[in-house]
Structures are given as C-alpha cells and as structure tokens.
Specification:
The complex is a heterodimer of chains A (about 150) and B (about 375). Chain A is mainly beta. Chain A has 1 helix and 8 strands. Chain A has one domain. Helix content of chain A is about 10%, strand content about 30%. In chain A, the strands form 2 sheets. In chain A, strands 6-5-4-7-8 form a 5-stranded antiparallel β-sheet, with no helix packed on it. In chain A, a hairpin with a 5-residue loop joins β5 and β6. The longest helix of chain A has 14 residues. Chain A is globular, with a radius of gyration of 20 Å. Chain B has about 375 residues and is of the alpha/beta class. Chain B has a domain of about 130 residues: Peroxisomal Thiolase, Chain A, domain 1, CATH 3.40.47.10. In chain B, the strands form 2 sheets. Chain B has a 9-stranded mixed β-sheet. A two-stranded antiparallel sheet of chain B has the order 5-6. The longest helix of chain B has 16 residues. The chains are: A mainly beta (about 150), B alpha/beta (about 375). At the A-B interface, β4, β5 and β6 of A face α1, α4, α5 and β5 of B. The complex binds zinc ion.
C-alpha cells in the first residue's frame, strides 16, 4: 500500500489568524457587565429545577424552561478538581507551570473552570476553599477574574 | 433492528507519527483502495453513498471532505462529511442503510495530526465566551477528569499505568500500531509529567493515518462476503459542554449510549454477553472510566479488574487487544479504528492480536473533551 518515496516530501507552510467578536448573549452580557463594573458574579437560577447555573444561560439544561432572572453567586467557592499544566502554548494566557481548577462557587450547582494561584501545587486539594482575585483593569472577559486563591 | 446492517470490509493504513510521503487524500486512498480490493467492490457502481470523517483544522480546509471527494468516489454522488469521532460515522451510515435510501456505504476517517498543533486545534472546541480564553485543551481538561475520577472512586495512577503497559504490549502484535513496546508501571509513572496526574505515557500520541470500512444492507452483505459482521445495536448520547456542568467522574452519556445499544442488540447482561471491547483510551484512565460506563464492571472497579488480568488478550474480557489509542491512532479516526478492530476480531482476521472465540464485541468512541459525546456499537457475527 505504501510507496517508498524517491522524491523529497514538500510541505506548504501556512498560518491563519482571525479576530473574533462573539456575542455573549442575554445572560452572558449581564454576567460580564456585572463582573467588569461591580466585581459581582452572576448565575442563572431555574426555580422549577431548583438549580443555579454557571455559566449563566437563557434556557435550563434540564427542563428547557426559559431563564430570565439572575442571582449573585460566590465569590467564594470550593475546588472540585485541579491539575498543574507543565507545557506552554500560545493559546494559554499564562506561562506554565500554572494550575487549572474547577471551582464550585457558593450558591451555584455547576462549576467554573479557572486558574488557581498563590498556592503550592502540593497544598491544593479537592474541597479546598478559594476566593477570586479580580483584575485591576477589567475588560469584560473571563480574565477579569485573574485567578482564584486559597482563603 | 428489523433490517440488518453489516460491516463487509475493513482496511487501515499503518499509523505513524508523521506520514510525510502522502497528503491526506493519498493517505485516505490507501485505505479505500485496499477495502475495495478486499471486498471486490468497485467505485462508483457498487457503492451508493460515502461518509468521510475528519477535522477541518487538521486538514487545513473547512468542509474538508472537499480534499478527498475524488478518492472516496464523491464526485457528483452522495457524499457527506461527519466532523465527529469515526464511531459516529458508523451510526450515520447504519441509519442511511436502515432508511432504505442506500444499500452500500463507504465510510472513511482520516487525520494527519502531524499537520498542526493538537492543543491549539482542540482549544477551539471550548466555548469562546467563558472557557477558550483560559487556554484549555483536551489534555489539560482530561487531567481534571482524571483527578476527579481518581478522587471519587479511589483509582490510582498505578491502576491507569497498567492500561498503558497492557495496551503498548498488545500493540506489538498490531502491524498498524504507531508505538508499542514492553513498558513497566514504573516507566509510566516516571515518564515526564504533562498535566498531573497525566504523564507522557498516559496520553495517546499524535499520529497520522486512515481507516476505511464498508457497510451494507443484509441483502447486499450476503452477496459481498461470507463473513459479515452485524451491527446488533448502536447508541449515541451527548452530555453537557462546560467542564463544570457535570461531575467529570460521571459517565451518564456513555451509560445512556450503551443502554440504547445493548437494548437494540437484545443484551440484558453485557458482562455475560460481551466477549471483547475496543474503547477510546485517548488517556490511560479513560479505558477504566469507559469500562465502568459501558457496564462491563462496577463503578470504581475497573482498576482492580485490569490488575486482575481480566482485560488482557487471554483474559475474561479482552480490552483493546489492538493496543488502543495509546498505541497511536489519530483523532477522528479513533472510533472508526475501534469499530474496525472489533470487526476484524469477529471475522477472525486480527492476526497475532486475535482473541479466541469472540462472537460479540463492543466498540466505543467519543467526541469532544472528557468524552462529552459518546457512541457505542455492538457487533456480532
Ligand atoms: Zn429547569
């Protein structure tokens, strides 16, 4: 099936760059405005299911009901899982090594994936209580939370 | 299923870290021409539809089936592109035949992972509003799942390392495998940390390759081969997207997909009925997690089950006798390779990796990070 080549394989070098502006939606717009302007974190409650979702959303995952309200959640939370990333990639906003965690914010039923810092990896554990550190210059994106740190 | 669909032919390229001797169309053609030769079928007259499965960014072209239309016989004919794991292409192919619209479908999955950086490609799978900007990729996300699974069910790194040792040893018997060898648990544990608890040997390596497979209606299958492999049951299920939306140690989507596939196959007790499994071990711990999700052992028991030797080629339930994804199978091709390997086993054509007396096999594939979408195919001969 395979041919032994008698020619030098040739690769065409390409690079793609695209700038995107993605609409955050009805709930997302309120979340990012509140984060940027008031350092308050919002989630979407579904009264029928007795659940509060983060990220905020306009339709309940379980009952498909429309969600119009928003409630404040966190800012404290609990680590559900974590890892130490040892490799660097241009997609990462921080330089490795850094810690990722999924953090369940108080008052929410779903977790937020984010960075954990100001802690040795050996001290991080599932169940650890953490708080967000907000960026001084907030731009209305998820990095307005710089990272979470232990209480 | 009232009507039946069979796999009537399977062909695979060699998997390698980098196939610089062929472009992806030429690589796909190796598998396609082989499966046509094996079945004695010809394009275009004998095949009435084709489904290709690949990844736009890895191919470097949106609607990337454009690049393989000629080799898959798609020119001025029915040809669809499936941008998910190859196991799901089998699902769509079977649905097309069961609908009565088609009687013989060529399915081909290809990816050249060597063409670009997997972490950058996979970062695009994360939602652009809340997660992508944080820099996640499938490996860092899997590390979160691995930690959660180990914490909740008492699975150890040694348990996961035994999967690597087994699969890389199995891969020595597979001429298509990209990597294989005799490793010890200590080798896996001491391989470089990538995103603990995941170390280098816990992670399926990049690979280039293609798999082609032909599905046929029962009537056509009987004429094409005397060794049809029947799709007895098939099921798919999606879980939530966001990393925090589910407990990553849970396997609800897989349980539902498997439940549908077993019910369709009339299997009440998969532990008794299933003779072998080919599962999507993109990361070592996933073989354990998926075995539990498939109901082939109890939750939290897959580590002990593996340590007992039950999943070895000579064991009670051989798992990934091919060497699995850990031996190097490209993204997208992954699940089609699971189905193809299971079919080869049931045809008795698995060479040195042949499991003796296998009549029912389960193949499982998944798409997205942490196994968000699951597809389960139950095969029988
Ligand atoms: Zn609801």
């Amino acid at each position: 099936m395979e041919n032994k080549t008698e020619y030098k394989p040739f690769e065409v070098d390409q690079h793609l760059t695209a700038h995107g502006n993605y609409w955050a939606g009805k709930a997302g717009s309120r979340f990012f405005t509140s984060l940027r302007d008031k350092k308050k974190l919002l989630g979407s409650p579904c009264k029928a299911c007795n659940k509060v979702f983060w990220p905020p959303r306009s339709v309940c995952t379980f009952c498909f009901g429309e969600l119009k309200d928003m409630v404040e959640i966190g800012p404290l939370g609990t680590v559900e899982t974590f890892t130490l990333v040892t490799y660097s990639e241009p997609i990462q906003p921080r330089t490795a090594p850094f810690i990722y965690a999924v953090i369940r914010l108080d008052g929410a039923d779903t977790g937020m994936a984010h960075f954990l810092d100001e802690v040795e990896i050996g001290k991080v554990h599932i169940g650890m209580r953490v708080q967000p550190v907000f960026a001084k210059d907030r731009k209305g994106n998820i990095l307005d939370i710089q990272y979470f740190k232990p209480l | 299923m009232t009507e039946r669909v069979a796999i009537v032919g399977v062909a695979q390229t060699r998997f390698a870290p980098k196939r610089s001797d062929v472009n992806y169309g030429e690589m796909a053609y190796e598998a396609i021409s082989q499966v046509l030769k094996d079945t004695g079928l010809a394009l275009p007259e004998d095949i009435d539809s084709a489904i290709s499965c690949s990844h736009d960014i890895w191919d470097g072209q949106t609607i990337s089936d454009i690049g393989i239309t000629d080799v898959i016989g798609g020119h001025l004919r029915a040809e669809e592109k499936m941008a998910m794991d190859g196991s799901t292409a089998v699902f769509y192919g079977a649905v097309g035949i069961l609908s009565g619209e088609y009687s013989c479908t060529l399915i081909m999955a290809h990816t050249k992972m060597s063409q670009t950086n997997r972490h950058i490609v996979n970062n695009v799978a994360f939602d652009p509003i809340y997660t992508r900007m944080l820099g996640f990729d499938f490996t860092s996300a899997a590390a979160l799942q691995a930690r959660r699974y180990m914490y909740k069910y008492g699975i150890t790194r040694e348990d996961a390392a035994r999967v690597v040792v087994k699969n890389l040893a199995n891969a020595k018997r597979n001429p298509c495998a990209s990597q294989s060898g005799d490793f010890t648990v200590a080798d896996v544990l001491s391989s470089p940390a990538v995103a603990p608890p995941l170390h280098k040997l816990d992670i399926a390596p990049d690979a280039d390759g293609a798999v082609a497979l032909i599905l046929a209606s029962e009537e056509r299958a009987r004429k094409i081969t005397d060794k049809p492999v029947w799709i007895l049951g098939i099921g798919t299920c999606y879980d939530a997207h966001y990393l925090g939306d589910r407990d990553l140690a849970d396997t609800f989507a897989l349980e539902k997909a498997a439940g549908r596939a077993y019910a369709m196959a009339g299997i009440k007790n998969p532990r008794r009925s299933v003779d072998l499994a080919e599962v999507g071990d993109e990361f070592s711990y996933q073989e354990l997690l998926w075995l539990e999700g498939l109901g082939l052992c109890d939750r939290g028991e897959a580590g002990r089950f593996t340590a007992s030797g039950a999943t070895a080629i000579g064991g009670k339930l051989p798992v990934n006798p091919s060497g699995g994804l850990l031996s190097g199978v490209p993204a997208n091709v992954a699940g089609l390779n699971r189905v193809a390997e299971a079919a080869l086993q049931l045809r008795g054509e698995a060479g040195d990796r042949q499991v003796r007396g296998a009549n029912i096999a389960v193949a499982q594939g998944h798409t997205g990070f942490c196994g968000q979408h699951q597809c389960v195919v139950v095969l029988g001969n």
